[in-house]
Design goal:
It contains eight helices and no strands. It starts with 18 loop residues before the first helix and ends in a 7-residue tail after the last helix. The protein is elongated and about 50 Å long.
Length: 193
């Protein structure tokens, strides 16, 4: 009987290159490194796009444009801070630019004129991440943008104000209103905690 281990080959161990090291390959415009960076960050960055852009096809397009900008502007990365964070910032900015272009086509409706369906879940039900994201999509776009940038992306009100061309106080006000509206939509009573 033949020894099954005799024909067994040793498979080389794959080493995963840290994202920070992929920067050098991308800087040298190495297409393999660019592809590896894209493949590795695509799922995470796609989820970010889906939070901002409701339409799946539009979110995919925004993500591709963002990665193109990453590769075109790779020399602008100052190597201070996280390379992935720098890419994330480009993706978020691209989403915001898409929403800004889209807002010229759609008229915003005042919050007071929107009738949201009541949430009929019981008090023991737990809020899932998808529920929060779906509920956030019901917010007016100005409130939603500020909420996402502040809460999910960790931007300061000053940064949000500059990015959205609003004052720092307007950013704070819209965040407060977004939180209040989310509590109403989720029927959350802070006194129950």
């Amino acid at each position: 009987m033949e020894n099954p281990l005799a024909t067994w080959q040793v498979i080389p161990t794959l080493t995963i290159i840290p994202i920070e090291e992929l920067y050098l390959g991308c800087l040298a415009q190495n297409s393999r490194t660019q592809r590896e960076l894209f493949d590795r960050l695509y799922p995470k960055m796609r989820n970010i796009c889906f939070r901002y852009v409701k339409d799946t096809a539009a979110a995919e397009d925004v993500l591709l444009v963002a990665f193109r900008k990453v590769f075109e502007r790779i020399s602008q990365f100052k190597n201070t801070g996280s390379f992935e964070g720098w890419i994330r910032r480009i993706v978020v900015n691209e989403c915001l630019m898409h929403l800004e272009k889209e807002s010229h086509w759609w008229k915003e409706v005042a919050l007071e004129k929107i009738n949201f369906p009541a949430n009929h879940s019981g008090p023991d039900d737990r809020l899932h991440w998808e529920d929060l994201i779906n509920t956030m999509q019901q917010l007016p776009s100005g409130y939603r943008k500020v909420f996402e940038l502040f809460v999910l992306e960790g931007w300061s009100h000053l940064e949000i104000g500059k990015q959205l061309s609003i004052s720092e106080n307007t950013s704070k006000s819209q965040l407060s209103r977004a939180r209040a509206q989310l509590q109403k939509l989720l029927q959350f009573d802070p006194r129950q905690n």
